Structures are given as structure tokens and as C-alpha cells.
Amino acid sequence: MSTQFRYLAKDPSGKTVTGTMSAGSEGQVAQELRKKNLTPVSIQTGGKSGSKESRKTRGWEKAKPKASLSELVLFTRQLSTMLSAGIPMLEALEILADQAETAGFKRALKGVVDDVRTGGDLSAACEKYPKCFSDIYVSMLRAGEVSGQIDTILERLAEYVEGAQHLKQEIKSAMTYPVVSLFLVFGIAAFLMIGIVPQFKPVFESLEVELPALTTFVMDTAFFCKDNWYLIGAGGFAAFLGLMSFKKTEKGAYLVDSITLRAPIFGPLFKKVALARFSRTFATLVKSGVPILAAMEIVSETAGNRVLSEVIDRAKASVQQGDTLSEPLAASPVFPPMVTKMIGIGERSGSLEILLEKIATFYDEQVSADVKSLTSLIEPLMIAIMGFVVGGIVLAVFLPIFKLQEKLAG
After folding, report:
1. How far is CA 58 from CA 1, 107, 115, 128, in A?
2. pLDDT above 90 covers what percent of the chain?
3. Roughly what angle, to the nearest 10 degrees, separates helices 150-191 and 135-147?
4. Helix, strand or coil for residue 315?
5. CA torsion sign, 259 to 260 to 265 to 270?
6. Model confidence over 46-78: pLDDT tens digits?
7. Fewer CB within 10 Å: N-end or C-end of the chain?
8. 261 with 274: CB under 8 angstroms?
9. In degrees rounded to 5, what are phi and psi of residue 52?
10. What percent helix, strand, coil does the chain show, rounded to 5?
């Protein structure tokens, strides 16, 4: 059965030619192209005609437009490379839309292609899909279109998205171990308290000794958990839903973000992550030609922490009134003196984006170092917690036996 292929080729004059062809293999497509005096650049499968596969490939039409950071990085780098090689914008977008791996991103790119084909700007087309293209992405595209340096801007965008992806992975690796360890501790403790400890009650009653306080406490707790496990589960679930609902309110979100920055152990790490994101985003926008007030508005929206956003908004109001950016930032405990002084120097010297990039690089390195040190610190801490909980339960079970031995020996 023949397969539909989409090809990109060059004619003898160097002009790009695209189209589709039915053939048995990619080699046959290449042969046919060479017969037409065309040089193949890329050949991609478009699906088997008249088969179930061709219908499956249209599943993107119902998918929600969304994209992961890794997809966005690949798309941005490939688009930048194609534009630098002289391939027209529309043809490059069509090729990338066809080769998109996920249905959601394919649908978004197909929509972008349709808008660009009818004469729309790339930035305006991408703005319609906020789940794929963020505010900073759209703003930088717009700045690239105005300056005529869209391929350069796309390269910077790819670097920015890669940095954001790396930062996200660092945080995920820092949080994975303690979260998994806590689930294991609670799981083992629940198994012992509900499934094992209550079975020792008849044994303790037959010993005819006064139970130690620790054993009495553990036994009472175990029977309470066994008799009311559904209430405990429902209460925990209700507390979780309540916390999530509270976090969705403006006051709740601000309070949670404030606690996050001040939390022991993880607080300094989250603060450095916020500063790295602020510096990297701000530097990328300013370097790409986005006006500073518009850049500050985007930085505030993408800061990821409402405490930081509030400080940035105050700084933006200060800049609107003709004051410096560094002064309102220095008045906040969120921004360390090193950061505000470097921003002040950048304002005076006209090299703000350069110093912001240096700040971002510094905090990226700090985050990586903190993640490694936290991992080495959390591991023995979680082992100690597990030992304390499990060891306490086991000790409570064996204490009456030890007490009976002392009674018999006496």
C-alpha cells in the first residue's frame, strides 16, 4: 500500500520546493525528486492513504492546544535554523507542524500556519495559544518582527526556554526524594499501626503486666486509626482540598508564596530559583528590544511568586515616575544587596541586560549546588525520621515483653 510523503527539496537555482507524493518508501520519493532535477532536503511520512493510520493522524483536530517545554525548545531551534537557511517562514512552519509529535502541539501549529498563510503576524498567531506560547515568547517574537531579527530572537528564545526547563528539572529533582520518602514513611507507619499492632492486644492481655506508657499510647493510636481510618482519610482529603481552595484566593496565594520563601531548608532554594527566573526573563526581554516597562510587566506575571511580583510592580511604578529601578528593589528583603547593586550599576552604565544575565548565571549555579547539598542532607534526615517512627512502634511492641522478663527474673 502506498504511503503519503511530504517533501522539502531545492531546485537548481536554490529555491525551496515543497509538496506531497505517494510512494512505497522514502527512497522512491528521493528517486522521483532527482528525476525532476530536485535535491531532497527532508522527506517525512504523511500517513498511509485510505487506511486507519491516516484517520488517526487527524486526531490533533480534537486535541487541546498545548506543548511541553522540550517540544517548545525543539520547535524554536528548528524554526530559527530554517529561517537562517533561507527557508520562507510559512514553509518552515508547515514542515514543523507536520512533524509535531503530540496532537495538542500539532493543532496549535496548524492554527499558527493558517493565520500566517492569511497574512497574519507570527506573534499574533502564537498569542492565540497561551498553553503553548507564553507572554514572554509572544513579546519577544513581536520585538523580533519589528526589528527584522526574528531568527536571532528565536535563538535567544530557545536558550531561554532551555534555561527554564533546566531550572524546572532542578526543582523537581530537589523535591522528588523528600516527597517519595514521606509517602513511604506514612505508608509503612499506617501498615504497622492498622495491620500489625492491633494483633498484639490479646498477647499483651495474656502477659498480665502493666503496659508502659509508650505501648499504651501506640495501642490506643493503632485502634483509633483502625476504627476510624475512613474518617482520617476523609479529613486529610478535605484538608487538602481546603488548602488548595485557599491557595487559589489572592490572599491565600500570597500567604503561601510568602511562607515558601521563608520556609526552613527549602526557603533559600526557592528564593534563589525566583531570583534566577526574574533575572533570566528580564535580561532576555531587554536584550531582545522589548521596552523596559513592558518587560517588567511580563516579568511580574511570570515571576511564579506573588511576593516577588508585588515588589516588581512597585519598581515598575517607580520607573514610570522617572525614578531608578534598583531603589524599590533594594527596599525589599527579597532582593539581596548584590542583586540590587548590580542592577543599579547596569542602569547607570547602560548594560542592564549583561549584568542581569550574570545574576541569572550566578543563581543558576547556586540552585544546582543547593540541590546537591539538599539531597545529601535530606537522605540521612529522612532515614532518621523513618527510624524514629518505625523504631518507636517496634519498641512499643517489645517493651511489655522486656517488662515481663524483668518480672520473672525478679
Report:
1. 19, 9, 19, 21
2. 1
3. 170
4. helix
5. negative
6. 544 444 444 444 455 556 778 787 888 888 888
7. C
8. yes
9. -65, -30
10. 75, 5, 20
Helix (H, G, I), strand (E, B) or coil at 352: helix
**pLDDT of amino acid 202:** 82
- The pLDDT score that the predictor gives to residue 57 is 46
Residue among 258, 291, 263, 282 nearest 363 (CA) = 282
> Tens digits of per-residue pLDDT, 163-219?
777 777 777 777 777 788 888 888 888 888 888 888 888 877 777 777 888 888 888
How far lies 351's CA from each of 57, 179, 291, 359, in Å? 49, 42, 14, 13
CA distance 115 to 136: 20
Half-sphere exposure for 256 (CA within 13 Å, toward CB): 13
Closest by CA to 283, choosing from 202, 241, 339, is: 339
CA end-to-end span of the chain = 92
Kindly report which listed range (65-79, 306-320, 328-342) carries the lowest average pLDDT score.
65-79
Q: Work out the angle between the directed axes of helices 306-320 and 250-262 (0-180°, nearest 10).
A: 100
